[in-house]
Amino acid sequence: MILEGQYQNCEDLKIGIVVSRFNSQITEMLLNGALDCLKRHGVKNTEIIKVPGSMEIGFVLKKLVNLDYDALIALGAIIRGETYHFEVVSNEISKAVMQLNLEGKVPISFGVVTADTLEQAINRAGAKMGNKGFEAAMVALEMANINRKINSIKST
């Protein structure tokens, strides 16, 4: 048996999006990309939770991961500055999302852009390199459908 996610039958999915307000120029572009993807695939039930920064995304995801969602999407933008803060935030949000993916009942897709410059971040939010928010939403849809298929397998 081969299980693979699909992008059909998404109308009844419930998707939660946790998005950082920090670097809002970028995160709003990511959010718009994600919402565009979900709309194109017929998703009608989407909830958006805005948090102050990327470090706060993990807290909210932990609260949501075992609730009544089919998938969650984490969106943020971390741009390198002059201090070590970039590495700390980037590493910790990545670890948090991975840990919650391993422990929670629904998948979380990672749409947190990490970039050295504002220009790189803009490019990843829809300018030159596609929209990572749109891509994260595609991953969420596929993983939600895979999760449903796995949950429907009866043990023998």
TrEMBL record:
Where is the catalytic site?
A: 85 (proton donor)
Report any one BP term from Gene Ontology: riboflavin biosynthetic process
The EC number of this protein is: 2.5.1.78
Q: Which reaction does it catalyse?
A: (2S)-2-hydroxy-3-oxobutyl phosphate + 5-amino-6-(D-ribitylamino)uracil = 6,7-dimethyl-8-(1-D-ribityl)lumazine + phosphate + 2 H2O + H(+)
Residue sites binding 5-amino-6-(D-ribitylamino)uracil per the record? 22, 54-56, 77-79, 110
- Pathway annotation: Cofactor biosynthesis; riboflavin biosynthesis; riboflavin from 2-hydroxy-3-oxobutyl phosphate and 5-amino-6-(D-ribitylamino)uracil: step 1/2
Coiled coil regions in record: none
Task: Identify the residues that bind (2S)-2-hydroxy-3-oxobutyl phosphate.
Answer: 82-83, 124
Keywords assigned: Riboflavin biosynthesis, Transferase
Top-rank lineage group of the source organism = Bacteria
Write down the InterPro entries for this protein, in alphabetical order.
LS, LS/RS, LS/RS_sf
Any GO CC annotation of this UniProt entry: cytosol
A molecular function annotated in GO for this UniProt entry is:
6,7-dimethyl-8-ribityllumazine synthase activity
Q: Does the keyword Transcription apply?
A: no
Q: Which residues cross the membrane?
A: none
Q: Which family does it belong to?
A: Belongs to the DMRL synthase family.
Query: What's its job?
Result: Catalyzes the formation of 6,7-dimethyl-8-ribityllumazine by condensation of 5-amino-6-(D-ribitylamino)uracil with 3,4-dihydroxy-2-butanone 4-phosphate. This is the penultimate step in the biosynthesis of riboflavin.
- Can you say what this protein is called? 6,7-dimethyl-8-ribityllumazine synthase
From which organism does this entry originate?
Thermosipho africanus (strain TCF52B)
This chain is encoded by the gene named ribH
